[in-house]
Specification:
By secondary structure, this protein is an alpha/beta fold. It has two domains: 118 residues, Rossmann fold (3-Layer(aba) Sandwich); 92 residues, Arc Repressor Mutant, subunit A. It is built from eight helices and eleven strands. The protein has a five-stranded parallel beta sheet with strand order 2-1-3-4-5, with helices on both faces. A four-stranded antiparallel beta sheet has the order 6-7-8-9. A two-stranded antiparallel ribbon has the order 10-11. α2 packs across α3 and α6 crosses α8.
């Protein structure tokens, strides 16, 4: 599988490229909006991972020009612009999926493979039910976390942390792994910052009955109410 990654942050770009190549994908990269369309045409990728805030030309302009030129490659927008309005604008411009930063690298890989599979017309696999802990679960379409039928209001890093824990119900995840998932490519962030995110998330899910438990030496996990 060939991917084109359009991302101007060098640390984020290198992190994503290494992670995706470890999964057997070929990753072409571009760091400038003005060059993105030409590289899109020349590399002929199976999917494009497109940041919005690019030098030279905004990612939405790149996407609009690609669609106008007849390029139908599946596109996942990766951006810190995570409001509902931004998602709607991106999807209306021609994106196929939208993932707000920070995000789980495992989720990105799963979304890429699902998108390429759908675009290639492969037979659809039965959808697995979303993992649940108590009444908490991730909506696979939007990526939002719900408590029963109510979405939780979470900051992006809190959302990334909770999604990572929900992806592995009943399993402890180390602090090191969670730091990678919550702060991907952010080398200037103190390691202890993950504890702040854990503290804030613990308070926000307290009313759900689900506990965010610290296991000394092992990491963190979610525990359903008894």
């Amino acid at each position: 599988m060939k991917l084109l990654l359009v991302e101007d942050n060098p640390t984020m770009r290198a992190t994503l490229q290494r992670a995706l190549e470890r999964q057997g994908m070929t990753v072409f990269t571009c760091d400038d909006g003005l060059q993105a369309l030409a590289q899109w045409r020349s590399s002929r990728p199976d999917a494009v991972l497109l940041d919005l805030s690019l030098p030279g030309q905004d990612g939405l302009e790149v996407l609009a020009q690609a669609r106008a030129a007849g390029l139908r490659t599946p596109v996942i927008i990766l951006t810190a612009r995570g409001t509902v309005g931004d998602r709607i604008l991106g999807l209306n411009t021609g994106a196929d999926d939208y993932l707000a930063k920070p995000f789980d690298l495992d989720e990105l890989e799963a979304r890429v493979r699902a998108l390429v599979r759908r675009a290639g017309g492969s037979p659809a696999e039965p959808a697995a039910p979303p993992a649940r802990v108590g009444g908490l679960y991730v909506d696979t379409g939007s990526g939002a976390v719900y408590h029963h039928d109510q979405p939780l209001e979470l900051a992006p890093r809190e959302l990334a942390l909770l999604r990572a824990l929900l992806a592995r119900p009943g399993q402890a995840i180390t602090k090191e792994k969670l730091f990678e998932l919550v702060f991907p490519g952010e080398s200037d962030v103190q390691y202890e910052a993950i504890e702040v995110v854990v503290y804030r998330l613990r308070k926000k899910i307290a009313d759900t009955g689900v506990s965010l438990v610290t296991l000394r030496g092992l990491g963190y996990l979610l525990k359903a109410p008894a």
